[in-house]
Amino acid sequence: MQRTSRLKRELHLLTTEPPPGIMFWQNKDRMDDLRAQILGGANTPYDKGVFNLEVVVPERYPFEPPKIRFLTPIYHPNIDSAGRICLDVLRLPPKGAWRPSLNISTLLTSIQLLMSEPNPDDPLMADISSEYKYNKEVFIRNAKQWTEKYASQQKGASKTPDEEVTQSEASTPKESAISQKRKANDISRKGKKPCLDS
Amino acid sequence: MQILSHSFINMESSDSNDKANIDHSEAQRRSQLDRLEREEAFYHFVNNLNEEDYRLMRDNNLLGTPGEITEEELMRRLHQVKEGPPQQNGDENRGAESTEDVSNRDSIIDWLNSVRQTGNTTRSGQRGNQSWRAVSRTNPNSGDFRFSLEINVNRNNGNPNPEAENEQSVEPSNGEDLENSQSDTETPRSESPSVRQPGSDRSTSEELATEEASPLRGQRRARSRSPEQRRTRARTDRSRSPINPASETPRRSPHNMPSQTLDHSLVNESEGSSRTRQHVTLRQHTTGTEIASENAVLFSTPETRPAPPALGSSETNGSSESAAPGQRPPTIVLDLQVRRVRPGEYRQRDSIANRTRSRSQTPNNTVTYESERGGLRRTFSRSERAGVRTYVSTIRIPIRRIINTGFNETTSVAIQTILRQIMTGFGELNYYMYSDGDADPSGPAPNQNVDAPELQNGGDSGSTSSRSESTEGSSGEVYESSNEGGSTSARREGRNTRGSVTFEESGSLPFLSLAQFFLLNEDDDDQPRGLTKEQIDNLAWRNFGESDALKTCSVCITEYTEGNKLRKLPCSHEYHVHCIDRWLSENSTCPICRRAVLAAGNRESVV
């Protein structure tokens, strides 16, 4: 219903008070197709990784949750190879826990939390899940490998991050997010493996 | 709004930094500005609505999406809905009908969806030699839902002309059919107080599936039956109280008339075919603490009657029919009515006492499977007394066929097929009923009617039920006992027979899954779904005052401004009415704290 105005407010809030480790911007000019980046948490196998996410805002937002998926491959029990995320707040009740008082920022924070604390009891990837449960070292090794391979070096070739830089710089040049962002981008300059961008 | 424009400027600057897109972003900026303006107008409009108008708009889905329609459009809609809802319905019906003549399953689903949205639709289609039309109307005030389905069977499979004309004739007569269904709606209500003839009632409720085996028997019995009985069988009344045949006749005629015209147009091609009328009345009551669902399905079909065709036809279909009995193609009319009783709204007829009373009238509440060459009749009842839920369902399909001289087997077979298919549509539902039907107080009386084959011979007087005890017997005692017996046995019987019926022709008519879909979806719908309008309206509502501490609606992330209408949930969280109402129409928890908006018990009742 109130999608447009609400999204504007959300974008504004995100640019003024971005949650740590999360960036969020419009993809091109579209209001309903957003991009986000989550930085891998420090004490996780995703450390130093930069994970791109796609946030599609449905027409009925906020009465329906936005559809969020990882564009960057990630080795995680609750995220499948297509980037789909198994998380209750991403789904509508009664099965899910989405509610309109949540927003894209809180969802991304939840995803960030899910990355640091997988939920192997509700697995999307059974193999990874059992590995996480019973063979954690292997899991960590694999996850680190994937992070390094797909997420750690954000190659400059990737369009999305570049766009993001210009946009977020322009709108909130002094935001801390930007510096974080730049760091991430600097790393990615070395450019290794292209990620699964769009 | 300050925040808003501020954020907008941010975005604008970011957009314009993208050099390639300056023009584009400019255009986008404008459209977004327009949209924001309209959104503001929307809030303004909603703020100025009084509660009644607001509900009217909301319930008719006229509010739309903020920012997409202008305030003027909203005003126009409001005036429109205030001035002429009935006319609008008519338009919708007509419009829907003109475009729809596809009879595949998808279209049925579409139709159902559109029924859900608009409440009123008409669909028609053709499938093989059967053409059908479904008309549904929803009364937005009472929540009553009516659905009527009419099937025309063209007996002359080989001849394409009749089919075509069949279709044509069906289409234009839609308006009449609507009236037809409307009059049907009212008819059952007025019937309740009348007194039913014992004998006739019996005849319906106790015919058994076993009779189906012998067509001859059915015919014989039909012939022997008295007119009154036939008429009584043809009716189902909502409260399931006895019907007085005498009062029945005038009532029948009004809704038969409109469809009559329909049939007349077909007379030429369809000579010698039979006509079938079915009335299905389905009622569903949802009350605060219990659900009672009565499905009364009544199919009355002119029966194949070798000897006195004129008699049978006039009885069943009214005067106009007698003019050309048996010359019309079989037409099956199925009327379905669903009524939702608002929580807390206890009417006498919906009360437990009433239902119990009606249950004690075993003949009307029993599960009976009757078939003599296609005659079906079932009644189910179910109740969970301690478990709060009462579920009474009645499906009766007494069928009579009129055999005219030109009648052939194909027609009757076609009719039977359709009837079975219809029953199949209800099959799943019936299954539920069955499971509880055994607990019915009607008791484990011995089944006297299972021996129907033998009884058949005795059934000359026309009271089938009493055949077991006395051929002609319409005496009260006989009536009582046989009814009890009939109820249980018939239930058993029905269960057995149902299986075979289902397997035989399941799903061959696309719309037959309708009933199933519709009824079974009640559960599905209610589970993820939210509160009813009434429940939402019962929640507190107030105007945001200047003195209130500054707060923000967490649905739209907008600060309240003076004059905003807020709804306060039991958990004390407040939102814009239009924001929270929309959420609650599909969900039942507070968006902030996720507490159930309704008490658990109340919530249960919704399901």
What's the helix and strand layout?
The complex is a heterodimer of chains A (198) and B (607).
Chain A: H1 3-16, E1 22-27, E2 30-39, E3 50-56, E4 67-70, H2 104-116, H3 126-134, H4 136-152, H5 159-171, H6 176-189
Antiparallel strand pairs in A: 1-2, 2-3, 3-4
Helix pairs in contact in A: 3-4, 5-6
Chain B: H1 2-17, H2 22-48, H3 51-59, H4 71-83, H5 85-99, H6 105-118, E1 121-127, E2 130-138, E3 145-153, H7 160-170, H8 174-191, H9 198-205, H10 215-224, H11 227-233, H12 245-266, E4 277-286, E5 291-300, H13 309-317, H14 319-323, E6 331-338, H15 352-360, H16 362-365, E7 378-383, E8 390-396, H17 409-437, H18 452-458, H19 464-467, H20 476-505, H21 512-526, H22 533-537, E9 540-543, E10 552-553, E11 558-559, E12 565-568, E13 574-576, H23 577-584, H24 600-606
Parallel strand pairs in B: 5-8
Antiparallel strand pairs in B: 1-2, 2-3, 3-6, 4-5, 7-8, 9-12, 10-11, 12-13
Helix pairs in contact in B: 1-2, 7-12, 8-12, 9-11, 9-20, 11-12, 11-13, 17-20, 17-21
Domain RING-type (chain B): 553-594
Biased composition (Polar residues) (chain B): 1-14, 114-142, 180-202, 256-275, 283-292, 313-322, 353-369
Protein name (chain B): RING-type E3 ubiquitin transferase
